[in-house]
Amino acid sequence: MPKESPRPRIPMNLARFVRFCIVGGSGVLVNYAVYLPLSRLTPIGPYFSEAAAFEISLLSNFLLNEAWTFRDRSLDDAAGFGRRLGRFHLVSLGGLALNLLVFGMFLELVGLPDLMALLFGIAAATMWNFLVNLRWTWSDDADAAADRLWRWPGRLGRYGRRLLPVVFVGLWLFCVAQYALRPARLPAEEDYRALAEAVEQGFGEGDVLAFAPFWAERGRLWLGDHPILGVRDPADEDLSRYSRLWLVGVFERDAAPIRDALAARYRLDLSERHGTLTLDRFVLPSGVDVHYDFVAEVDRAEVTIEGKAAARCDRWQRQRWICPGGQDWHFVGRLQTDVDYNPRTCLWAHPTNQGALVVEYPDVPLGAVLRGRHGIRRTGAGKNPSPVVLAVSIDGEPAGRFEAEDRLGYFPFEVSTASRAGRRATVRFSISSRNVGTRHYCFEALTASRKAMR
């Protein structure tokens, strides 16, 4: 009768755990190495790309663990190899579920920031994956290991065998309760009413509202008549056109870091609490006098295509200039879209392969500066290395050339018009790209009385 192999010593398992973590880190690199070319160079989209990348990284992890981490437990028979591969997939899916569960508990119950909560989720999943793979996937006797895994609650007492399903059901009920009790932690109607009254009493010309989190729709129902800066982090925005910023905090966890960032730059002159809602008002430096907003005045623009297939985009429909060709994306018009994970109101101006797309504004009043921002929408960023080029000319003279890179971002641009301040001129924007595929481009611009871009 063969002797039972002794249980591995702790130092040996510690070394095995280190190797297991190194393999897991390599799996992250494999995931990115597969996802990036699939999502950028093929038409299958990000979700199928990530599914393929996830599976390939799992196979990579399994093979490395088979050849290195658990090489002393790996056998050469094909049947055993297949069983270990199947078990490894099951264990990995269990680790993913545990990761999400622990992440949600620390995020919702403890109130930790998402990145810190994610660390706890990753740690729990890593320990689960290592221990179950050690005791089951690469066990000398997997059936006996599985039986031991099931029988260990019985050691806790007479009802130990029933403990495991009770724990899992309890965790499931806890998650359901978190979602069921969430409305009780939301602000009440009385809180919104009191806050809206406070804003109405002090809101002035040049003021703007911001919400934390930015997607707080309920707050917009009460305060939607006022200008709203619908971005994730107002502290990173150009606020020079406003005189005061009102920050409405729906969840303190979201409002606190934004409040601190704004307080480091601007003077806080009001701080109130209405129930669970917070209201903070910041006084901004003296802003600029805006003479002309190109997004708001798009109906006055003349849109043409210049090049080998010159054409006029002269059909005004649904607040946009429609270009010939039949493609639903081939227009110039005001649009609210996600450029950098923020909703931006800008001019959609997708470049064409027929020539440069030209947007020309006559009789524009100039100040000291023409400035704006531009970028490629999130759905198109990172899928085509060709940047979008924005060329600005004033009365036929080149004034600036700017590139929107193929990455997430809403990039500022600026042209000095101090020598023309007080005059009127024809301003021309020319948009082009070497490769127009997925160049979901938009920009905004205005003329102002003084240079105030941060």
Primary descriptors:
alpha+beta; 39% helix; 454 residues; Jelly Rolls
Task: Please provide a written account of the structure.
This protein is α+β, with helices and mostly antiparallel strands and 454 residues long. The chain has three domains: 10-182, no CATH class; 189-283; 290-448, NPCBM/NEW2 domain (Jelly Rolls, Sandwich), CATH 2.60.120.1060. The protein is built from nine helices and 18 strands. Strands 5, 8, 9, 10, 11, 13, 16 and 18 form an eight-stranded antiparallel sheet that branches. It has a six-stranded antiparallel sheet with strand order 7-6-12-17-14-15, with no helix packed on it. Strand 6 and strand 7 form a beta hairpin. Helix 1 runs antiparallel to helix 2 and helix 3 (78-110) runs antiparallel to helix 4.
Please write out the topology:
Blueprint: H1 10-41, H2 45-69, H3 78-110, H4 114-137, H5 142-151, H6 163-181, H7 189-202, E1 207-212, H8 217-223, E2 244-249, H9 252-263, E3 267-274, E4 277-283, E5 290-293, E6 302-306, E7 311-312, E8 315-317, E9 320-322, E10 331-338, E11 343-349, E12 356-365, E13 369-376, E14 388-394, E15 397-404, E16 411-416, E17 424-432, E18 441-448
Parallel strand pairs: 1-2
Antiparallel strand pairs: 2-4, 3-4, 5-18, 6-7, 6-12, 8-9, 9-10, 10-11, 11-18, 12-17, 13-16, 13-18, 14-15, 14-17
Helix pairs in contact: 1-2, 3-4
Tally of DSSP helical segments: 9
Alpha carbon gap, first and last residue: 80 Å
Helical residue percent band: 25-40%
Number of strands: 18
Short structural description:
This protein is of the alpha+beta class and 454 residues long. It has helices spanning 10-41, 45-69, 78-110, 114-137, 142-151, 163-181, 189-202, 217-223, 252-263; strands spanning 207-212, 244-249, 267-274, 277-283, 290-293, 302-306, 311-312, 315-317, 320-322, 331-338, 343-349, 356-365, 369-376, 388-394, 397-404, 411-416, 424-432, 441-448. Helix 1 (10-41) runs antiparallel to helix 2 (45-69) and helix 3 (78-110) packs antiparallel against helix 4 (114-137).
